[in-house]
Amino acid sequence: MPQITINGVSLAFEKGQSIIDVALKSGIEIPHYCYHPALSVPANCRICLAEISQPNPKSGKLELIPKLMPTCHTAAADGMVVTTESPKAIANQKAVMEFLLINHPVDCAVCDQAGECTLQDYSYEHGRSESRFQEDKIKNPKKDVGEHILLYSDRCIMCTRCVRFTEEVTQTGELMVEGRGGTEMIDIFPGRPLDNELSGNVVDLCPVGALLDKDFLFKQRVWYLTKTPSIDGLTASGDNISVEHKDGTIYRVKPRDNLEVNRYWITDEVRYGWKFVHSESRITMPSIRGRESFDRAQPAEAWRAALAQAADVLRSGAAAGRIGLLVSPMLSCEDSYLLARAVLAFDPNALLGVGPVPHAGTDRVLRDGFTISAEKAPNARGVRRVLEAIAKGTAGRAAVGSSVLDADAFLGALTSQGVGTVIATGNYPSVWVTDPMFQALSTRRLVLIDTLATRLTPVAEVVLPSATWVEKDGCFENRTGRLQAFHRALVPVEYCRSECDIARGLAAAADSRGGQLPHGDATAIRAAMAKLPGLEAFVAAIHHPPQGDARESDMTLITL
To answer: Is 287-543 the same fold as 3-95?
Structure first.
């Protein structure tokens, strides 16, 4: 392969790569603002300029190009030698930083971008210790440019990433560059607010604090937040995300780069759809119909009584006919596995079904390959894969009704298959109980496992509060069949438990059956799942989030 030397390091590259692309992929930092790997290259910020020498095609002798060249716009060539650390390149970096800061308000103390601002970082690394500018600074207004976004024009350095994003990725074109010279600024076209389905990504793209998220504004300092790698728990896209939280509260969700899934973006639906995790409608205590509320000071006793009652309902339901298990596509594969195992311990011929899978419109593929998923459930395929493997591997299951049904077929089969007792799971972020479902389930003995109160909550014989996807470990299978693991960000609120813990509790409440379910974390459960024919992929083909992506702060925090 061809070789290029960047700052003394020899690197292999592929034909067509730019110098900055080769450097960044190899862990060599070249300062840049306007460059982004998913956008066009205008080469207008000029801080990435470098001294370049390359072989003369006739003599083969290494010759220095007489002027600094933009590494973002210059293709790598075999034998090329690049340095961003020469006196000439360093002088350019300092000059660019001085120009950018001439009219900048330098309001880091009140800016939400402080702590993750490239302008702030480069001012320390490549800037001057003082400004030589003595005149009055140009002042620009703050603008409300869309439902989620504020524009602080004073802070803008005109990298134009946001404008190129709306032109090239979403192709909605709401943003433009208005004016020229010192009056140049970003703005929206009259009557066209920034309201596309990926509008929040302009905040991630902005290297300074010019574009800010209204939802996060003045909420928290970024250096106090813990970032937990997770997966989109709202749609079938499987987008890689980072859940950023502190003291049990989520403050924001941001995308993680994954070129095979979501590239660099997430939809606003995923970015802001986590609010139900902290909803006042969360079910936080187990309950038994007909009994007074449990004493909140004794949650362990409440859970013990509720699980014992649920086990009695399932045991008597199996004795009287068949049990039905409706597993929500919002649950992880591990939840589905343990719940099915627990229910089949009561009734080996239990009717298995996948809960309703919401849809909205059709899938839309953007020009760069990012897909907006119409399916609003993260794990319908994973749940079905697990249930079908368990159904095939369970000895003694009746031939009639042994397949895994979708929600409508499940409701229709309740009467024909003689199902008098149902254990149903929800965990949806919005209303999921339809009129036919309410009529079918409310007339049977019902054990409900859910996160938000619904019409079924008061009619269920036992209600067990469960955890959302950010409150547990597990994995989802997205619309393309990709299995991806995610980590727990929060401890379950109040007295909620994950479906895995609930399944173990049900099995333990059924006398000696508790020992049949695997214990341990999600990795241990997947290891047990992989022993079942058809589920080997849960060890062999699971995708884990990359490690070592955290940035170390140079700030010393002192507790007073």
So the answer is: no
CA distance 474 to 334: 6
Phi-psi region of 95 (alpha: psi -120 to 50; beta: other; left: phi over 0): alpha
Average pLDDT over residues 342-370: 95
- Using CA atoms, how far apart are residues 502 and 497, in angstroms rounded to an integer? 7
Architecture of domain 3-95: Roll (3.10)
Collapsing DSSP to helix, strand or coil, 390 comes out as helix
**CA pair distance 182, 188, nearest whole angstrom:** 18
| One-letter amino acid for residue 248 of the chain | G
Question: Using one digit for the tens of pLDDT, what is the confidence trace for 387-420?
Answer: 999 998 875 554 444 589 999 999 999 999 999 9
Give me the residue label for tokens 């392969």.
Answer: 1
Give yes or no for a contact between 320 and 370, defined as CB atoms under 8 angstroms apart: no
Q: Domains of the chain: which residue ranges?
A: 3-95, 287-543
Phi, psi for 335 (deg, rounded to 5) = -60, -45
- What is the residue whose two structure tokens read 């059956």? 513
CA distance 507 to 100: 64
Minimal CA–CA distance to 196: which of 258, 143, 266? Answer: 266
Q: Is the dihedral of CA 548, 550, 553, 557 positive or negative?
A: negative
What does the H/E/C string look like for 21-54? HHHHHCCCCCCCCCCCCCCCCCCCCCCCEEEEEE
Residue 553, pLDDT score: 54
Measured at the CA of 163, the angle between CA 158 and CA 167, to 5 degrees, comes to 155
The Cα-based distances of 185 to 17, 159, 442, 448, 487 in angstroms read: 31, 10, 59, 55, 41
For the domain covering 287-543, report its CATH number. 3.40.50.740
